[in-house]
Amino acid sequence: MALVEIKNLHKSFGTNHVLRGIDFTVEQREVVCVIGPSGSGKSTLLRCVNLLEVPEEGQVIVRGEDITDRDCHLDAARSQIGMVFQQFNLFPHLNVLANCTVAQTTVLKRGSAEAEKIARANLDRVGLNDKVLAYPMQLSGGQQQRVAIARALSMDPQLMLFDEPTSALDPELVGDVLTVMRKLALDGMTMLVVTHEMAFAREVADRVVFMDAGVIVEQGPPAEVIGNPQHNRTRNFLARVLNPTHVEPT
Amino acid sequence: MSAPIDTVERKGLSPRQRAQRSRWIQYAILIALVLVAAFTADWAQIVSVFFKPQYIKAAFEDGLMQALVKTLEYTAGAFVIGLLGGTLLALMRLSSVGPYRWIATAYIEFFRGLPAIVVFIAFSLLPLAFEGLTIPLDPYGVVWLALGIVAAAYMAEVIRAGIQAVPKGQIEAARSLGMPFGLATRKIVLPQAFRIVLPPLTNDLILLVKDSSLVFIIGTSAEAYELTGFGRDLANTYANLTPLVTAGFCYLIITLPLGILVRRLEAKAARAR
After folding, report:
1. Could you read off the pLDDT of A109-159 as tens digits, one per residue?
2. What is the rounded average pLDDT for all residues in chain B?
3. From the CA atom positions of chain A, what is the Rg in Å?
4. Per-residue b/e over B117-141, b at no fewer than 16 CB within 10 Å?
5. Domain regions of chain B by residue span
6. Residues in CB range of A220: below 8 A, 6 or more apart
7. Phi, psi of A21, rounded to the nearest 5 degrees
8. In A, which residues are within 8 Å of B172 by CB distance?
9. CA distance A77 to A50
10. B179: closest CA of chain A, how far (Å)
11. Distance between CA atoms of residues A177 and A144, nearest Å
């Protein structure tokens, strides 16, 4: 059974029809990268997977449970899905350790000693065990994003969602975050990543999904989608991303 | 370019000289006014009416400190009620349930539009209107309630603005960790909102310190006098304003440090941004 199964997903903001019938699945232990031009609906798709955006039509089935069903225990489902945001969204009034324990103790009802142990293990995993008592404001963007990853991992998620995790970072800090994500993928975490980092997608992804104008244009192994794209739209996008200074003749 | 500068004929003063002259004139006017005041006022009379040492001493002996403590107690209790009520009203105003929003809006608009003194007069008449009605913790209950329900209306708007100033990403992060809405509000949104509204809330506290003077409308017993009631009573007794002025200075002892605190908090918030 697929870990995530999305069926005929539609989402509009006002008159803007952002998702126009998306069908796709994520298998257990699979790393899927979603690429596409801005406004193509890739972030909206990701935010529909934990229902931060509520789709008008279609189903999102996570581990056999339809989370778009109003009777589904959405909070319980969400605690199993880690989310990493472009803007980190760490809790600024809590220190690094408390950022990683607050949901463990309140949602999962873990004891504070256990929660702290798990948080420290995950902070160690992202290379920040020396920052446990720091506040988010005292950290660089790259460090904040790694804390955000540790915070999500501390909930022992079945699936991790990454919404352009490196887009708000200074270029020299991108590498640290990608290294952590690469390690996660090697550890067998199921990951759905919206990204503009083509090198990362090519190297780490099992499958690349190219979206444009609210539909999935093509998907497959990175060597095919990035290496040998079949559709014009994909080729145009990749040409612009991989060679941004190139000016297309019109 | 060939004309040397010193041959250019200048009319009148340079801008700098003009600014200097204007400043001298302002100082001269000020000094003149001070001198006129100093020589025409009857200083002995002024001191004996407003600052007579024997009445200052009498004020202390008759329980000025007790009145100061009462003012602080009235203010503190009302602040707690205002804070709790204001938070509840702010959450109601942001509720997805329409009637909660309407009730909160009506309450806030009503009590913000009403002079606080009207509320106090109403409270003073309540025992007459409803015979046998007693509000517990006399006299604190009445005072805290009357001050608190007005303060809640003001604080609700401040707290609502604070809640809305917390970035949307915060609630999204909390919800995606599986926190239910109420828990996310309590653990993540409200602590940040209160940090944002600390300076304006302290301003509300200053207003509350001063509004506590309205208690004398309710007509408490002499032991329950706060600063204004106390000062007024004593000023009547001695037919001299000194006790009232002394009580007035006690307000400044409370409000000036709070004002400095507000400025510090604002500076700190500006730095954090």
Report:
1. 999 999 999 999 999 999 999 999 999 999 999 999 999 999 999 999 999
2. 88
3. 18
4. eebbeebbebeeeeeeeebeeebbe
5. 2-41, 54-272
6. A207, A208
7. 85, 80
8. 52, 83, 85, 89
9. 8
10. 6
11. 10
**Test the B interface: residue of A62, A78, A110, A155 with most B CBs within 10 Å:** A78
Q: What number does CATH give the domain B54-272? A: 1.10.3720.10
Task: Tell me how many degrees the CA angle A106-A109-A113 measures, rounded to the nearest 5.
Answer: 100
Between strands A31-35 and A81-84, the pairing is: unpaired
Is B130 in a helix, a strand, or coil?
coil
By Cβ distance, the residue of B176, B179, B187 closest to A52 is B176
Cβ within 8 Å, pair A92-B192: yes
DSSP code at position B187 = I
Residues B190-199, mean pLDDT to the nearest whole number: 91
Backbone angles phi, psi at A51, to 5 degrees: 60, 30
pLDDT confidence bin for B10, thresholds 50/70/90 = low
Burial of B222 (0-12, 13-18, 19+ CB in 10 A): exposed
In sequence order, what are the residues at sequence separation of 6 or more whose Cβ sits closer than 8 angstroms to the Cβ of residue B29? Answer: none
Residue of B nearest to A53 (CA): B172
Instruction: State residue A4 phi and psi, 5-degree precision.
Output: -125, 135
Give the H or E element holding residue A162.
Answer: strand A159-163
Taking contacts as CB-CB distances below 8 angstroms, the residues of chain A near B167 are 89
Judge contact between B233 and B220, C-beta under 8 A.
no
Residue A222: its pLDDT value, please?
93
Angle at A134 between CA A130 and CA A138, to 5 degrees: 115
Q: Residue A230: what residue type?
A: Q
User: What residue spans of A15-109 are helical by DSSP H?
Assistant: 42-49, 74-79, 96-106
- Chain mean pLDDT for chain A: 92
Over 70: is that where the pLDDT of B27 sits? yes
Quick check: B57 pLDDT over 90? no
Query: What is the C-alpha separation between B273 and B261, in angstroms, rounded?
Result: 19
| Max intra-chain CA distance, chain B | 99
Residue A6 has pLDDT above 70, yes or no: yes
